[in-house]
Amino acid sequence: MTAISDCFIGKRNEGRSALIPYVTCGSPSLEESLDILALLEDTGGDIIELGIPFSDPLADGPIIQSSSQLALENGVNVETVLRILGDFKRDSKIPVILFSYLNPILQYGLENFLKGMQQAGAEGLLLTDVPEGSDPSIEAMILESEVDFIRLVAPTTDYDRIAKISTNGQGFLYYISRTGVTGARDLLREELAKEIVAVKRVSEIPVAVGFGISTPDQAAMVGKVADGVVVGSALVKILKEEGMEAASRFMRSLREAIDLES
Question: Which is catalytic among the residues 46, 60, 139, 227?
């Protein structure tokens, strides 16, 4: 069992869904990074998704694109992220997943990166542009490493393929709530709850849902049926525009809403 698996088992035993906040490392400032990670843990986060900034984040909407660009301007690179993560994990046991595109990792060196992740204390890796079966050699290296390889599936993915992806994934399955890029949305699709239930039937690992979840009510609705709720763009926007106190209130409101409905 891994720390991520243990987290989902614990939440299931409590009858609650996991809250998985996303932030881009080094945004809005490098100096705040450790305090932001601590805030996410202290206000009810169960697993943290920490983004490695990239100059061409094609799967992300304008909010996370902007945070990634700001982090790059702040001098953040792969080595910086691993250092900050290592500093954070010295005093924290919350599982952390690194979110990245493949290019920065290839530039750093995949083998070195996986070793660096393990040394820094990361529990998982999510790569947006390495779908199941796209590069067997890269996938095998990650699957054989000490970190969980988190896989993505979309509403357009058929259920036979979802079942296959889940057998070649680890930790949990990340279900994208809609097609397109990341970003906060006023409304979630009416079909989403039924889709989550169907995905859970064929997945051998827990299912967390992200993309577009931006309010406590939306988080509660998803938390009723999913094993985990991922909130990114809305949190990143609040951190940049309103600061850490507002982000703390937002996180607590998400936690309360999810727990009331679970």
Answer: 60
From start to end of the chain, where are the E strands? 18-24, 48-51, 96-100, 124-127, 148-153, 173-176, 207-210, 228-231
- Count other C-beta atoms under 10 Å from residue 26's C-beta: 27
Q: Is the pTM of this model over 0.85?
A: yes
**Tens-place pLDDT, residues 111-139:** 999 999 999 999 999 999 999 999 999 99
HSE of 60 in the Cβ direction (CA atoms, 13 Å)?
27
CATH at 257: 3.20.20.70
- Residue 60 falls in the annotated catalytic set: yes
Q: Are strands 48-51 and 18-24 parallel, antiparallel or unpaired?
A: parallel
Considering 41, 46, 49, 139, which one is annotated as catalytic?
A: 49
pLDDT above 60 (res 184): no
Q: Each residue of 202-230: pLDDT tens digit?
A: 999 999 999 889 999 999 999 999 999 99
Range of the domain at 39: 3-261
Separation between Cα atoms, residue 51 and residue 1, nearest integer Å: 24
Cβ atoms of residues 28 and 69 within 8 Å:
no
Cβ–Cβ under 8 Å, residues 216 and 4? no
3-state secondary structure of 210: strand
- Give the total number of structural domains in the chain: 1
**With the C-alpha atoms ordered 80, 33, 145, 154, is the resulting torsion angle positive or negative?**
negative
pLDDT of residue 212: 82
